[in-house]
Amino acid sequence: MNERLVLCGGASTQPGKGADLLRLDLSGPNQNVTVRVHDITKRMVRSIPDLLVDLLEVAAYVYSADWATRRGGPGLRRLGADWRRQFHFVIPVRDPDTWCSPEVIDALTDTLGFLSDDDYRFDFERYTGPPNIQHYLEFGEQKLSGFKPDEVILFSGGLDSLAGAVEEVLGNGKSAVLVSHHSSTKIFSRQRDLVEELGNKAPGKLFHVPVKVQKKERLQHEFTLRSRSFLFASLAAVVGKMFGNSRVRFFENGVVSLNLPILPQIVGARATRTTHPRVLDGFGKIFSAVFDEVVVVDNPFALKTKAEAIRLIEDRGCGDMIRSTISCTRVRAITKYKTHCGTCSQCIDRRFGTLAAGLEGQDPEEMYEVRLLEDERESGETRTMAEGYVKSAVEIRQMTDQGFLGRFAGEMSRALAYLPGSADDNARSIIDLHKRHADGVFSVMENGVRTHAADLVARTLPPNSLLMMAVSGDGRLGLTVDPQLINMEFPEAPAAEQAVDDTRSSEIRIALDEANKQVLVAGLPALKGEKTFELVKTLSEMYIENQSKRRAPENYQYFPGKRLADRLRVEDPSLRRLVSRIRNKLFKEFQAKYGLPLPQDALLQNVPWRGYRLNPAVRVLDPSEVGD
Q1: Which end of the chain is more exposed for a tag (fewer CB within 10 A), N or C?
Q2: Is residue 208 within 8 Å of residue 180, measured between CB atoms?
């Protein structure tokens, strides 16, 4: 793509003949971009430095040029040639000495280049007759007297940002300014409602600053909008400076933030780097260079999964707010009752997260145009997206740490240097993050297979629903790498000549052989190994305690994963692998002997963030009672 010359705010530079020209104006007779910062108090703007106004305008121009410049052709088939764009910005500013400094120019071009996969060149000139800051402001009725925020938080109205605000305000007892950007009245009303509801739970702790950026319809629309987070961060930095704060906080789960190339043909090309550790570090460098003081931009959720972030909302007593959040990218299509399409990557990630967190009741499936597991998915990108999401989780779940590093070392290296702590510790944390995410996705699929077992056997679900693709022999998901999932399909009746004990149930009877440190399993070889014995013994003790207290099976308690790992003197990933090995061994031996599939959790059950337990259907007996 040829370089696009972006002349901003009536810049004096004259374009050459045949230049690919884009003119953007935030004021004056040729205004085609609008920025409005709502609900600001007059006290906040009494002495705003020119640099803050400059930053607001620069960010708005970068975002608008991104918005108005298409990438490639239909389907983005030629990513190498057409994906990457070249921008040459000429922007008038009030303080050209600062903006022309090498520190600012280098930080801008490096950070924005990595953020949006584009090439940037900036020329700044002195602004003659610039608009006053009031041109961008709409004063509100919020009371500022005595309000000194502890944090400045980007608040989109999605699940992660709500979780962050809830955790900071209700969990950590902080006061916060929530800065929101919106381009749709549907999103704006949701953001306001969420802020009001959270404010009712934490009176006097919140100050909300909504910001709206619009362009005229004649400017074409590029949907990727990777520069969006630069606009968000800049708006928050400006608002933060009004309050005297020098830290801006994004909240986004680490799987999305790190953006490993789990599905290169789709996700890797289009997925955002909006909160990648390198990008946030770059934003900090830009703002620090512009303001000539240290400004920090961070993401406290960098090592949390989506489900873990969502659980924080419930844990702080705000689970009822989950259904009011909006994650869908197809804002124009949402209705009062169908607020999510169910097919975009954000909807898929959201639904897996709420289900893995056990909060499906707070995120009703009726809100989705397409249900995650059961509904037909049209061929093309949306189906590929859903397939790739699940397949990558299954593959990651089975990878060794070395295998994970071998596949993702390049992408991981882009993040390690920008996370606090040592590179080795960060690498282990990133692997563990993705393993936890993969476990959550797998548990959702497994529970879906169990719930819809009759439909799967009868083949009454749509053939291109996620569940049918996951378990069908010819499904494109390719989940055959994990027998525990595909064998939940239930095999066809065995051939007549095959000897199968079809009267055998899948009930598991076990006993603890203390003398030999092994677990006896009725009808099957003993489970051996010191850690295996300790694991089953620990869970058996809790199982017996549950029985003694006459709890209903569904109310049997779980042993927290961290405590269980500590009890066994292993790390969390090692515990998960131990559980997986036990399940695999039982599955294979049961299938070989009885010709029947054994559910994955027939012996050991686990639920993310609750822990592990013996399946309540297991029978823990005296060794003398466990025969062949």
Answers
A1: C
A2: yes
